[in-house]
């Protein structure tokens, strides 16, 4: 698959097992996620257009894997388990969180990644990104300094991705939290779109822009081919 992806794209697609992934995160191999993946295959579908995101799915959060991940990866801190399914194939933007994100590849997909330290004046260029191929069954931890967004598909039918984060992430800000953000005087506040979710959108990514995301991703909004 990765050989084909590199043939049809004009940028390098990197295997997640490559050494270059180590600055973005790590591969986790010691946790059984089969029950979570089985739930995704039985109870979630892929939309015909766009993406579908659910921050928290109670049925997955009562599984044994949730308890193990919460203990081993997050040191007992509360977490949420949700998913992102879709047919996205473009960069669109970046987000980051304060705390690691776990991704479980139910299907193959690609991730477009960069680093928070490459943000300058609340902007970052698409050329500062690298693209990684994540095969189905892979569990990765992305560090909080890793810029990312939706996966990109490598199959016509789309992708399925389990997303695990500190509890409350990607939920709406209260009016008081919005007020504190706007009055903070900290330029990072311009990027805070939801709880624990800082976003730099490509200006062409209409859904994000309509939500009020900061237009901080500059350059071509590349489309990845498969």
Distance between the termini: 9 Å
Q: Find the CATH topology.
A: Jelly Rolls
Spatial strand sequence of the major β-sheet: 2-10-6-12-4-3
- Tell me the total number of β-strands: 15
Known CATH architecture = Sandwich
Pairing-aware structural class of the strands and helices?
Answer: alpha+beta
Q: What is the total number of structural domains?
A: 1
Please identify which CATH superfamily we are dealing with: Jelly Rolls
Mean pLDDT: 97
Under CATH at level 1, the class stands as: Mainly Beta
Coarse morphology: globular
What does the main sheet amount to?
A: 6 strands, antiparallel
Number of helices: 6
Q: C-alpha Rg, in Å?
A: 17 Å
Percent of residues in helices comes to: 10-25%
Low-confidence stretches: none
Percent strand: 25-35%
Instruction: List SSEs in N-to-C order.
Output: HEEHEHHEEEEEEEEEHEEHE
Q: Which structural traits does this protein have?
A:
Jelly Rolls, 226 residues, single chain, globular, six-stranded antiparallel β-sheet, alpha+beta
How would you portray this structure in words?
With 226 residues, the protein is an alpha+beta fold. It has a single domain, classed as Jelly Rolls. The chain is built from six helices and 15 strands. The strands form four sheets. A six-stranded antiparallel beta sheet has the order 2-10-6-12-4-3. Strand 13 and strand 14 form a beta hairpin. It is globular, with a radius of gyration of 17 Å. The N and C termini lie close together (9 Å).
